[in-house]
Design goal:
Layout: E1 2-6, E2 9-13, H1 17-22, H2 38-42, H3 54-63, H4 66-70, H5 83-87, H6 94-109, E3 111-113, H7 114-126, H8 134-142, H9 153-162, H10 165-171, E4 173-175
Helix pairs in contact: 7-9
Length: 183
């Protein structure tokens, strides 16, 4: 990493970051972005958060501003509405790029929204994102509905272990919300 000082502010630049990002599935096309702004013009989130700006995110990758990009929880605001992809004249898949950046943030920084950690814990425990209450299972039976499919928690645990998700889930710190309008 190279340290660059401008106007008394130290910014860390990681020249290898754009190569790292380009190898992540879905993020291969970020270098095609020529900063036209159509992705940001249609983005419903960029209207409410100064940091979350698809064009700005692409440029930060191109410049190697990995730490600044991955340390901002606004990355988790993307709703994956795909408006950015629909509007991009270059076919840059910004929603996929944001997903790849989230994966890097979770893997390297061990941080994720609390709700994601809860959902992953539920999947590991019961095989579903949502833990189904016994009362609902009983009502289904009373109404003559078939039982819900059972999950194989041993197979799910194997998958979590094989993908290192168990370790990430155990060690990941969480945050509850992203404040709109933050930098």
């Amino acid at each position: 990493m190279a340290q660059k000082e401008e106007f008394g502010i130290v910014n860390w630049v990681d020249p290898a970051f754009k190569r790292e990002a380009s190898r992540m599935h879905g993020a291969e096309k970020f270098s095609l972005c020529f900063q036209c702004g159509t992705c940001t013009a249609g983005c419903p989130i960029s209207r409410f958060n100064k940091f979350y700006n698809p064009r700005r995110i692409a440029r930060m990758i191109q410049l190697g501003l990995k730490d600044r990009l991955l340390s901002n929880n606004a990355l988790w605001l993307c709703t994956t509405c795909y408006t950015c992809i629909d509007n991009c004249p270059q076919g840059v898949d910004m929603a996929y790029i944001v997903r790849a950046l989230r994966n890097i943030a979770v893997e390297e920084r061990r941080v994720m929204p609390a709700i994601y950690k809860q959902m992953l814990s539920n999947i590991l425990k019961v095989g579903y994102v949502y833990v189904i209450p016994e009362s609902r299972i009983k009502r289904r039976s009373q109404r003559g509905l078939p039982p819900l499919p059972k999950s194989d928690s041993k197979q799910i645990a194997k998958l979590f272990d094989a993908t290192n998700l168990s370790d990430i889930l155990e060690k990941a710190e969480t945050f509850d919300r992203v404040v709109l309008g933050n930098e």
